[in-house]
């Protein structure tokens, strides 16, 4: 559900996040923020359907989303994103080809999104637009790289502890079967890991 209501504190969060990348002039911020559209979504809403093209880059001001591939029996969950993070099907966003995976909200969520065409206009018409785009891309790459390295070099228990240490409160809102899939174990094995830890 798209809403035209504004939430000044949410826009402030976005600006603070952007300012950590590079300062923006008032004119550049006004241009960039004018392109943002608020989307309020209920729990289990689909942000990106497999087979569809990604047209948006979104900033999460409230909520949790997951990336997954649908399976006949169980989904393969391969990513979570939380508040104050960007979310997009980035490969589809860049290539404008259909996505191989889906993105859905795990909680009621608020996002502020910008279209690919509008982002290109921000790159062209603002002083630091290209730098912001590059830094956002680097951040998303680092998240992906960290996930891949964890799968290759860490045990399931270490992967669980990493996830838990990063977002202990928010993790309680994620169903255990999704967490199990994310760290590469069965729900039963995750229960044993959790028992050992506690």
Average predicted local confidence, pLDDT: 88
CATH fold label of the largest domain: Jelly Rolls
* Spatial extent as radius of gyration: 18 Å
Q: State the major sheet.
A: 5 strands, antiparallel
Percentage of residues assigned to helices: 40-55%
Cα-to-Cα separation, first versus last residue: 40 Å
Q: How many beta-strand runs?
A: 9
CATH H-level homologous superfamily name of the largest domain:
Jelly Rolls
| SSE class | alpha+beta
User: Which spans of ≥5 residues are poorly predicted at pLDDT below 50?
Assistant: 2-6
Label the CATH architecture of the largest domain.
Answer: Sandwich
Number of domains: 2
Specify the overall morphology: globular
Assess the beta-strand content as a share of residues: 15-25%
How do the helices and strands line up, and which of them pair or pack?
Layout: E1 2-3, H1 8-21, H2 26-34, E2 37-41, E3 46-48, E4 56-62, E5 65-69, E6 76-81, E7 86-87, H3 90-95, E8 102-105, E9 109-115, H4 116-125, H5 129-153, H6 156-166, H7 168-171, H8 176-183, H9 187-197
Helix pairs in contact: 4-5
Summarize the structure.
The protein is of the alpha+beta class. It is built from nine helices and nine strands. It has two domains: 2-152, Jelly Rolls (Sandwich); 154-198, no CATH class.
Short descriptors:
198 residues, alpha+beta, 2 domains, 5-stranded antiparallel β-sheet, 4-stranded antiparallel β-sheet, cNMP-bd_dom, cNMP-bd_dom_sf
């Amino acid at each position: 559900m798209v809403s035209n209501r504004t939430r000044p504190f949410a826009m402030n969060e976005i600006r603070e996040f952007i300012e950590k990348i590079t300062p923006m002039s008032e004119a550049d911020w006004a241009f960039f923020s004018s392109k943002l559209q608020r989307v309020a979504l209920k729990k289990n809403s689909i942000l990106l359907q497999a087979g569809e093209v990604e047209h948006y880059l979104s900033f999460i001001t409230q909520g949790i989303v997951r990336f997954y591939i649908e399976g006949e029996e169980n989904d393969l969950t391969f990513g979570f994103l939380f508040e104050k993070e960007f979310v997009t099907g980035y490969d589809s966003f860049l290539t404008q080809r259909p996505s191989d995976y889906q993105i859905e909200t795990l909680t009621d969520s608020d996002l502020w999104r910008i279209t690919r065409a509008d982002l290109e206009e921000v790159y062209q018409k603002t002083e630091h637009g290209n730098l912001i785009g590059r830094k956002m891309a680097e951040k998303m790459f680092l998240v992906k790289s960290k996930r891949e390295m964890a799968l290759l070099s860490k045990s399931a228990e270490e992967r669980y502890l990493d996830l838990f240490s990063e977002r202990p409160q928010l993790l309680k809102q994620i169903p255990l079967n999704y967490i199990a899939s994310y760290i590469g174990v069965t729900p039963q094995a995750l229960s044993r890991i959790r028992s050992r830890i506690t």
